[in-house]
């Protein structure tokens, strides 16, 4: 039995996780995976119900699971409550509680969606990038304070934190094109100078077969748009990874398309789309479920040991897009023949059953 905890969260989160659960249920039946599902609260929904963005019951359920599927957290409804109880603290907290330090974010450009990207189609040919973002250190978790007239946030990293995420990235790069790009700001920041020194040592001593490139984060942001197909695996610290992967989503055409996996040293992984809660479209049935469905495929691959089922789901999503199925965000300006969340998922399920 594989127990999957579903954290729908806020905004469109419950809608897209419901779509992904439908696909997982179909895959479980088709590939005999024995998946079972349990719902739990996180984010603003958890704060409203239990006074905390991450109730202890949610942490306990996640720790006892095989994997966690998460939708999204946050929204303007909770912007005025104290920082420690805001929905985003639930997401940061569950990552910390489960020791999830490596965030995997694949970015692939599907030729049929070239028109949805602001880049020229020729720039998108061959784009297949895997970004590894360090997830539990850096400025998001450092010491901080604010007064009426000043504030500070501290960025801290240890050599051990850098080593472990670089090893994850390097191992993944060895199974791809054997090229890795480490992103930092070593011309300004001491944490980045430590990052570059440690990354250089790990790649040189443990993975000498890799082609290694070091880029400053501002240069990396530029090159993601000017030569995206040159990148294979990118590894970087927490905040840089957060920003760069949102930028990279435009290579695919929409943030709604991209999945992610957050992994640690064993234990359950957490899988979620990279997009936010999109409160402006919540409840309308128009959210793109692709990122969450593809996250579910990653869940099967990395936590359930079911690569065939994962590949079948990925092929079903790609097949839906290539056959012309579009959600509103990727349909193009003025298009009227786009599909809602449920109807698009129906197309994916039809493709999956035909696999």
Can you count the beta strands? 12
Mean pLDDT level: 95
Q: Please state the structural category.
A: alpha/beta
Low-confidence stretches: none
Q: If you consult CATH, what is the topology of the largest domain?
A: Isopropylmalate Dehydrogenase
Strand percentage lies at: 15-25%
Strand order of the largest sheet: 2-1-3-12-11-4-5-10-8-9
Helix/strand order, N-terminal first = EHEHHEHEHEEEHEHEHEHEEHHH
Query: Sheet with the most strands?
Result: 10 strands, mixed
Give the CATH H-level superfamily of the largest domain: Isopropylmalate Dehydrogenase
Number of domains: 2
Determine the N-to-C terminus distance: 23 Å
Rg, Å, rounded: 20 Å
CATH class of the largest domain: Alpha Beta
What best-fitting shape do the alpha-carbon axes yield? Answer: globular
Word description of this protein:
The protein has 355 residues and is of the alpha/beta class. It has two domains: 1-100 and 265-355, Isopropylmalate Dehydrogenase (3-Layer(aba) Sandwich); 118-252, Isopropylmalate Dehydrogenase. 43% of the residues lie in helices and 18% in strands. It has twelve helices and twelve strands. A ten-stranded mixed sheet has the order 2-1-3-12-11-4-5-10-8-9, sandwiched between helices. A hairpin with a 5-residue loop joins β11 (259-263) and β12 (269-273). α1 (13-31) crosses α11 (307-322), α1 (13-31) packs parallel to α12 and α8 runs parallel beside α9 (238-252). The radius of gyration is 20 Å and the shape is globular.
């Amino acid at each position: 039995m594989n127990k999957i905890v579903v954290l729908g969260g806020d905004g469109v989160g419950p809608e897209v996780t419901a779509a992904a659960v439908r696909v997982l249920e179909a895959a479980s039946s088709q590939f005999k995976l024995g998946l079972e599902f349990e719902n739990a609260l996180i984010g603003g929904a958890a704060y409203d119900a239990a006074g905390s963005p991450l109730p202890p019951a949610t942490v306990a359920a996640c720790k006892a699971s095989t994997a966690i599927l998460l939708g999204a957290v946050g929204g303007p409804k909770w912007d005025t409550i104290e920082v420690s109880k805001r929905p985003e603290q639930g997401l940061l907290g569950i990552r910390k509680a489960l020791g999830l330090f490596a965030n995997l974010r694949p970015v692939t450009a599907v030729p049929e969606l070239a028109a949805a990207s602001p880049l020229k189609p020729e720039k998108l040919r061959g784009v297949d990038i895997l970004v590894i973002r360090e997830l539990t250190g850096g400025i998001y978790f450092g010491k901080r304070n604010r007064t009426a007239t000043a504030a500070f946030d501290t960025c801290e990293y240890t050599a051990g934190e850098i080593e472990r995420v670089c090893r994850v990235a390097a191992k993944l790069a060895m199974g791809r094109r054997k090229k890795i790009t480490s992103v930092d700001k070593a011309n300004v920041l001491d944490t980045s100078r430590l990052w570059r020194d440690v990354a250089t040592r790990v790649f040189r001593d443990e993975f000498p077969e890799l082609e290694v490139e070091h880029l400053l984060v501002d240069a990396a942001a530029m090159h993601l748009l000017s030569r995206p197909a040159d990148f294979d695996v990118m590894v970087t610290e927490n905040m840089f990874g957060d920003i760069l992967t949102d930028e990279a989503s435009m290579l695919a055409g929409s943030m709604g398309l991209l999945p992610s996996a957050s992994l640690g040293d064993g234990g359950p992984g957490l899988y979620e789309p990279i997009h936010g809660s999109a409160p402006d479209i919540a409840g309308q049935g128009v959210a793109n479920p692709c990122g969450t469905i593809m996250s579910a495929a990653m869940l099967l691959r990395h936590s359930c040991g079911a690569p065939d089922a994962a590949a079948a789901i990925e092929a079903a999503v790609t097949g839906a897009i290539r056959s012309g199925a579009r959600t509103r965000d990727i349909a193009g300006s003025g298009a009227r023949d786009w599909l809602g969340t449920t109807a698009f998922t129906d197309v994916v399920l039809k493709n999956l059953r035909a696999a």
